[in-house]
């Protein structure tokens, strides 16, 4: 999207980590939107967020009355941006497939965090559930990629919302979740099949995301490191 006086501009509020805002960062960059990132002081800024949590997207003057359009919830923000910038198929069923994948990934992430502070048998049980979910999602990613000709895209031949969301999912585990549990990185790396690696490569080499990789660094060396 080329900026002019009618083009909306955005502020994405989140912590300076690879976490729940990574896909939105990628969408905004790939769309060539006018946007900036804000890292609010925490917890001082907590009461100023609609639901007290981040990420929050602010679309300047985007509301019907001309005030800012302010949106919480990482999934809602992603979908809003993906639809706005046409990274979603117009076909409702095809779009639903991409949403399904994203929401399943969120469940896997939640399953990881739900076992993190448990101990003993309870932890073992929940951790086992997470391991099964992680295996399953990596298998599904791999199958979809194979079905699509192993071109590095999950659906079709171009960069999609789902591609960015899957890339961000693995990146979050290997670069951020690892700060909560050092042992998780090798586990997740072990699930990255050649097909998933190809997706990571395709996403990073897409010209639309050149700026994102230049700003945030390549994820590839972290995936390939022992
Ligand atoms: N369901 C929400 C979860 C948001 C969330 O958990 N945000 C965390 C950061 S990843 C947060 O704001 N933590 C600070 C706090 O709760 O005070 C989403 O997907 O956006």
UniProtKB/TrEMBL annotation:
One of its GO terms (biological process) is glutathione metabolic process. Coiled coil: none annotated. It holds the Pfam family GST_N. Residues 8-89 form the GST N-terminal domain. Gene3D superfamilies: 1.20.1050.10, Glutaredoxin (3.40.30.10). Signal peptide: none annotated. GO terms for molecular function: glutathione transferase activity. PROSITE patterns: GST_NTER (PS50404). This is GST N-terminal domain-containing protein. It comes from Coemansia pectinata.
């Amino acid at each position: 999207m080329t900026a002019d006086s009618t083009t909306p501009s955005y502020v994405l509020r989140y912590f300076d980590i690879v976490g729940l805002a990574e896909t939105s960062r990628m969408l905004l960059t790939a769309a060539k939107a006018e946007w900036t990132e804000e890292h609010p002081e925490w917890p001082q800024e907590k009461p100023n967020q609609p639901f007290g949590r981040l990420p929050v997207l602010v679309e300047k003057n985007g509301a019907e009355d001309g005030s800012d359009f302010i949106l919480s919830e990482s999934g809602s923000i992603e979908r809003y941006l993906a639809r706005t910038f046409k990274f979603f198929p117009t076909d409702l069923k095809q779009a639903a497939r991409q949403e399904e994948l994203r929401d399943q990934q969120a469940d896997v992430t939640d399953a990881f965090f739900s076992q993190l502070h448990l101990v003993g048998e309870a932890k073992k049980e929940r951790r086992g559930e997470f391991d099964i979910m992680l295996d399953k999602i990596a298998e599904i990613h791999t199958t979809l990629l194979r079905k699509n000709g192993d071109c590095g895209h999950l659906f079709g031949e171009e960069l999609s919302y789902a591609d960015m969301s899957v890339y961000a999912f693995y990146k979050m585990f290997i670069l951020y979740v690892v700060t909560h549990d050092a042992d998780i990185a090798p586990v997740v790396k072990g699930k990255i099949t050649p097909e998933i690696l190809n997706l990571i490569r395709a996403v990073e080499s897409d010209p639309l995301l050149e700026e994102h990789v230049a700003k945030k660094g390549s994820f590839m060396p972290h995936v390939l490191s022992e």
